[in-house]
Design goal:
Elements: H1 2-12, H2 20-35, H3 47-59, H4 65-81, H5 96-117, H6 121-136
């Protein structure tokens, strides 16, 4: 699984190959493994951290901004469900507060873009409400 993650990172990075459509193929495989609860021992990163990093790549995409942002939020929520193995102390743990903060920021950006782009005030306010809801979970 870590091999898929590293390949996806190389394709997703703007500083490397910058081919996000290709990166998605690798990221989808990781998501499939996590959904099936397939245990894979990674030397350097936990499933939670991996999923959070993939979510970050989705949130940075400017094409299909709303769709990719919603996918990032779904992945962050999936990361919240992932428990860190207690017997592997070498992993850096991403706290729930850090994940909720990222979710709140994405909802805020969705609200800002909706407000500025389409002037759909009601939809923008829904995104802002969801941002506040995520922030209150911290």
């Amino acid at each position: 699984m870590e091999g898929y993650y590293e390949a996806g990172r190389v394709y997703a990075s703007r500083f490397d190959l910058n081919d996000f459509k290709r990166a998605i193929k690798y990221f989808d495989k990781i998501e499939l493994y996590v959904d099936r609860n397939i245990e894979d021992v990674c030397d350097s990163i936990s499933n939670r951290e991996m999923i959070s990093n993939i979510a970050m790549y989705y949130s940075f995409q400017e094409d299909n901004f709303e769709e990719n942002s919603i996918k990032a939020i779904q992945l962050y929520n999936k990361a919240l469900d992932e428990n860190l193995p207690e017997d592997v102390p070498s992993y850096s743990e991403l706290s729930n507060d850090q994940i909720y903060y990222k979710i709140a920021r994405i909802y805020q950006e969705l609200g800002n873009n909706t407000f500025k782009g389409s002037r759909d005030y009601f939809k923008a306010s829904e995104f802002f409400d969801l941002a506040l809801e995520a922030a209150n979970k911290m």
